[in-house]
Amino acid sequence: MTRPRVAFFDTKPYDEEYFTQVSGSQLDITYFRFPLNTSVAQVAQGAFAVCCFVHDKLDRECLRILKEGGVRVVAMRCAGFNEVDLEAAAELGIIVTRVPAYSPNAVAEHAAALLLTLVRRIHRAYNRIRDHNFSLAGFVGFDIAGKTVGLIGCGKIGQKAAQIFRGFEARVITYDPMADSEWAAARGVTITDLDTLLRESDIISLHVPLTPESRYIIRAETLAKMKPGVVIINTSRGELVNTEDVIASLRSGKIGGVGLDVYEEEEEYFYSDHSGTILDDERLAYLLTFPNVLVTAHQAFLTKEALTQIASVSVVNILAAHGHNPFLKDTVLTAPPA
Fold first, then answer.
1. Are residues 119 and 226 in the same domain?
2. Domain range enclosing 10
């Protein structure tokens, strides 16, 4: 059987390194640096699969062009699939796969890193020391031990985050209608309702997918229910947070700190070097002026372990669709042909 041809979009150096290493000679991959959308879909002509990332735009027209060019599989090398028209893919007979879980430790640990950096002012201390300023003024933080950490979402990543924060001797509460009550009871995690979590948490960390119900779960209405000085961490999806409402709460002093690895308009900037330009996004530019805001460019997943898992699952998905292996049901978003 011939090797399946794969058109790989929005390629970064680490993508090529890990996919080449994992796939070996099993796939015939062509790497493209630009993202996939309708205007460039024709370059995938003759490919069996396209491998895409979270911001590639696979709307109905893009999928139609891909199908006419011979593409049978869209392999998302991420958990998110908000930009994929699944209904159109199903109608066209295109299999869509994803990587539902890749090193939950990586994302949970990054959430903890953002929190610790914020509350101990490590990012500000680093910059001050480089200027040979060894003053400690303005660097008073607080202990995580004894605080209440509220996790909105307690799936695989949320559970890892809960274990980390329990290790800091924090009280951990979670809001998740699908939470595993036995797991929570065994680890001293309390399952509660959203209003209670908002009211009692000193720290709130988001670990939920983006759905119509979760969009802007952090907004003026929910911010008003939080404690003064609350710290908010988001390593999940940018649109879970209403940026304008968060900025207003930062200005009023209601929020004590914000750590973001994602941003609702991030696709315009994240993963690219804009150091020589002025940010057109006024909200993002304004956020970066606050000393109690820390932004990383969607890098929570970026560990050796996670990249290996992403590549491994994506390669297996493509090979399975090509007939080499039984299909892995938990990775498939549209039903494969009977």
1. yes
2. 5-102+303-331
338 belongs to a structural domain: no
Q: How many domains does the chain have?
A: 2
Same domain, 91 and 167: no
Distance CA 252, CA 246 (A): 10
Task: Name the residues annotated as catalytic.
Answer: 237, 266
* Residue 58 DSSP class: B
Residues ≥6 apart with Cβ < 8 Å to 223? 245, 246, 249, 254, 255
How far is residue 49's CA from residue 52's CA, in Å, rounded to a whole number? 10
Q: Are residues 131 and 83 in the same domain?
A: no
pTM, two decimal places: 0.91
**How far is the C-alpha of 204 from the C-alpha of 299, rounded, in Å?**
19
- Per-residue pLDDT of 206-253, as tens digits, reads 999 889 999 999 999 999 999 999 999 999 999 999 999 999 999 999
Could you tell me if residue 204 is left (phi over 0), alpha (psi between -120 and 50 degrees) or otherwise beta?
beta
